[in-house]
Amino acid sequence: MEYPVNTLSQLRSILQGLRKANKLTQTALAQKLGVSQQSYAQLEANPTSASIDRLCKVLEVLNVDLVLRDGVCDQLSILGNVATVGRNVGVNGLQEPLH
User: Fold this and answer.
1) Residue 67 C-alpha from the chain's centroid
2) Which CDD domains does its entry note (predicted)?
3) Considering just the CA atoms, what is the radius of gyration of the chain in Å?
4) I want to staple 24 with a disulfide (CB 3.0 to 4.6 A). Which of 7, 28, 53, 69 is the partner?
């Protein structure tokens, strides 16, 4: 299943949902990450302040892949694909090749 992330504020509910889908409490997930429950709770409450490295570790524990997919429309391809507008970032639980 794919979880498109168009704004960073969406990460909170996605992380909570993925954790619960894996039947993990914040405490259990924190133990797997080697951090305190309070530390993980802060990350989950405000994932926009977390580093990419930390988010990748959380996603790894949750067995989720981070997929960056080029969502360039015709206009942007004419411009030589130089803008980042139109890019989609998704969290994907399935193994998919990057195109």
Assistant:
1) 9
2) HTH_XRE
3) 15
4) 28
Average pLDDT for 64-80: 59
Q: How many CA atoms, within 13 angstroms, populate the side-chain half-sphere of residue 80?
A: 1
Cα distance between residue 94 and residue 98, in whole Å: 12
**Inter-residue contact 68 to 87 (CB < 8 Å):** yes
User: Which residue range is the domain that position 77 belongs to?
Assistant: 2-92
**pLDDT tens digits, one per residue of 27-68:** 999 999 999 999 999 999 999 899 999 999 999 999 998 887
Domain assignment present for 56: yes
CATH number at residue 41: 1.10.260.40
pTM here is: 0.67
